[in-house]
Amino acid sequence: MGVPLIQQYRMGKYILGKKFSGVKKYPLVLMLEPLFRCNLACAGCGKIDYPKEILDKRLSYDECMNAIDECGAPSSLSLVESH
Fold first, then answer.
1. What's the CA gap between 61 and 34, in Å, rounded?
2. Number of domains comprising the chain
3. Contact at 8 Å (CB) between 25 and 47?
4. What are phi and psi of 52, to 5 degrees?
5. How far is residue 36 from each of residues 29, 40, 53, 54, 70, measured CA to CA in Å?
6. What is the mean pLDDT of the chain?
7. Which residue in 11, 13, 44, 49 has the fewest CB atoms around it within 10 Å?
8. Closest of 64, 81, 78 to residue 13, by C-alpha
9. Residue 55: per-residue pLDDT
10. Residue 76: band (very low, low, confident or very high) from pLDDT cuts 50, 70, 90
11. What is the pTM of this model?
């Protein structure tokens, strides 16, 4: 199944709105990592060298929601909720 027509319309509207308003760079997606720790031990990755206090840091729910709001990228959640 492809992307729903309403989502295509809203993304197109968002992108055209940014282009017509002269905005050169704008977010399309937000990639958020609420946990710093990784369950992998990849060779060459510097994450495993951090102290335990750093690796155990986590973003709270409110910090994640604030990051989403600050980013300004169109949210697929809001696309679904407004249906």
1. 9
2. 1
3. no
4. -55, -35
5. 20, 12, 10, 8, 20
6. 82
7. 44
8. 78
9. 84
10. low
11. 0.61
* Contact yes or no for 37/55 (Cβ under 8 A): yes
Conformational region of residue 21, where left means phi above 0, alpha means psi within -120 to 50, and beta covers everything else: alpha
Return the sign of the alpha-carbon dihedral for residues 82, 79, 14, 60.
positive
pLDDT of residue 59: 92
Rounded to 5 degrees, φ, ψ at 58 are -140, 150
Q: Which domain holds residue 16?
A: 5-81
Highest average pLDDT, of 4-8, 21-25, 32-36, 47-51, comes from 21-25
CB burial of residue 64 (10 Å; 0-12, 13-18, 19+): middle
Cβ atoms of 14 and 6 within 8 Å: the answer is: no
Angstrom distance (rounded) from CA 35 to CA 42: 17
* 33-51 pLDDT, tens digit each: 888 877 777 777 777 778 8
